[in-house]
Amino acid sequence: MPQRYIPPPTPQYALESGPILLKDGRTATLRPAQPEDRALFVEFLQRLSPQARTFRFFSEVDPETAADLLLRKPPDEDKVTLVVLTGDPERIIATGEYVQEGPGSTSAEVAFLVDDWYQGRGLGSLLLERLALIGVQRGIRRFHAFTLAENKQMLDVFKASGFQVESHTESGEVEVSFDIEPNPEMVARFELRERVATVASLLPVLRPKGVAVVGASRDPSSVGYQILEHLVLNRFQGPVYPVNTAATPAAGEVPVVGSMLAYTSVKAVPGPIDLAIITTPRDKVLEAAEACGQRGVRALMVITTDMEERQIKALAQTCRHYGMRLLGPGSLALMSTSSEVQLCAGLAPRLPLQGRIAMSSQSGAVGLAVLEYAREMGMGFSNFVSLGAKVDISSNDLIQYWEEDPETGLILLYVESFGNPRRFARLARRVGRKKPILAVRPGRDPVVEALFKQTGVVRAENLEEMFDIAAILAHQPLPEGPNVALLTNASGPAYLAKDALEAEGLQAEVRDLGSRASAEEYLAAAQALLSGGYHAFIALFVPLGYATLEEVAEALQTAFNEARAQGIQIPLLTCFMAAGRPRVRLGAELVPSYRFPESAGRALAAAYAYAQWRTTPPGEIPDHGVQEDAARALVGKARGQLSPKQTQELLGYFGIALRPSSQPGIALVLRIRHDALFGPVLSLSLTGLPLGEQLLGLRITPLTDREALEMLQPLAGKAHLESLQDLLLRVSRMVEELPEVEGLELTLHSQPEATAVTQAQVRLRNHPAKR
């Protein structure tokens, strides 16, 4: 069995540049250093303590000389220097670099330097991680560093990195060295650090200790007044400060909004402000954001919806300068039902019921409608977030927050577009093993379908189905097997539910009590079925004049309570085909109730599919011992369509050989196309058919061994699955290692004994790919 390959972790933004989060939740900006940054470097080095400069340069060096050393580019050697900036005007607060040890070397020396005031906020670890990931992409395989023995902080960064660090001490100096290829511990540390920082950054949003409403008007019909009212009437557990910058009270007059003391500037607010809600006209938003940043506000929620693109970019930049998280613009609702918070911020007039569902919605209007529908169904939320334009805070951030949130048991997503789908895929795979993620996305994009399938995300066709499924996932145990008992007094509805279940691989046994069934008969039959070893139970009832809804609901509740007392933990569902459906509760447990039998069947089938995914061990990615460095050298010198010789050479580096085949078998074509949003997309199709190609499967890379085998199941018994699986995994590895590959097409001939690649075409981008 080939050695396991560990894909590198995926940052939320670009690897070398973009927003980053510090351990305390503050934001900053990461980017490569430029020659014109010399003045910023000098100012940074002047701020450092003499000890910090000595630790970095091993002796006292004046700031000008040190800046020149950090910015110097050695000839014929790879050097990467990154800087972290914050503030307005921007200033450097940390820098890190690696320098290759001679042309062509696979080893480099690494070092970093952090502002004294920013020590302990994870910047050293972040810089080391990013430099290692960049280095691996450029052919560097090992880092080493020299530091003074008393520089405990730098040594601790290396020890906590997850890399297997070797150290040697001599004459008060410590030399450390380690391989920088990603390994499971390094990836786990990366994801933990990112999760800790993300959660810290969202606490001021989801659990603020104080809220300011900037743009709070005295007009009761204004948005600012309504938002202030919603906060107060829902009893937010903290101070609320109305801020009306347009107010000009006369001498001796106290400014108020409603009956609350108001402030003419956010800077004048005397108490703590974690979250500022901005409701001003678009031309005033930047001014308000600037004032909030200067005041030390931790996060902004911008309600304003009609901002221009240039204004939105400037707003995001302002928030990064001051280390603030940004929700919106165009966020219409932000809610936390915890009794310690009770935050109802936005246009929704009241908090939803308290429960274990957390939801993010890209559409504010959809979100507001969903809240009312959930209330009708008796379903409660821990958090609800309307993302708006999601310039900063996205569903990826919220998934990380909800991953360990003890008040959340189910994550719902209404998604219209993806900012970083590859990052989403990695998060969903991890979080979905702990808590179900249920998503609705308009349209039927096959790439999105593949993304959801690979990551265990439960997909709902529409919002109604989302809540049908959510009722099970949030309130019932998962089915541990496929056998379902169906209790009914009408055969027609029961067989509609049976069809829906069996279409997804479950087995349903119908117990029809007949149209004259009484509540007593329902009780006896339910008791018998619930102790019959089934994996799930659905009770259907149609009022036909022989028993009432209330009588049957009471009988079922009795049977359900007895079952739970006996330790029978299977999902329980009801379907009352009448208006005013009663709700069955077993203490705090809600038994989902459906109007139509197909809805109950599809919802249970979705829960079963998720349970199967969750209990199936995650796949692995074999290493195969590929020659990625040689492959990078080849594509680094080429552009566009590769020649047959170049193609054969490139494939050979990944263990793929071209050879003719004249034996009968199945004709296939394996393609890679580069999606601007999702990256490499792999497809496999049957060819040579009378009606043209037939698509067998489509997946997003990187592909695991299990995903490759699932893709090949339609060919079981007709082709050599082991060799096809091996080929899919090698191609997936190739396009992951080489983002320059824009398109690939392999013509395959598979027999029951082997698979041959008979033809190949590879197309590279005409410009270097961003890494």
From TrEMBL:
Superkingdom of source: Bacteria
Pfam families: Acetyltransf_1, ATP-grasp_5, CoA_binding_2, Succ_CoA_lig
InterPro entries assigned: Acyl_CoA_acyltransferase (IPR016181), CoA-bd (IPR003781), GNAT_dom (IPR000182), NAD(P)-bd_dom_sf (IPR036291), Succ_CoA_lig_flav_dom (IPR032875), Succinyl-CoA_synth-like (IPR016102)
N-acetyltransferase domain ranges (all copies): 28-181
Gene3D superfamilies attached to this UniProt entry: 3.40.630.30, ATP-grasp fold, B domain (3.30.470.20), NAD(P)-binding Rossmann-like Domain (3.40.50.720), Succinyl-CoA synthetase domains (3.40.50.261)
Keywords, sorted A to Z: Transferase
Molecular function as annotated in GO: acyltransferase activity, transferring groups other than amino-acyl groups
Name of the protein this chain belongs to: GCN5-related N-acetyltransferase
Organism from which the protein derives: Meiothermus ruber (strain ATCC 35948 / DSM 1279 / VKM B-1258 / 21)
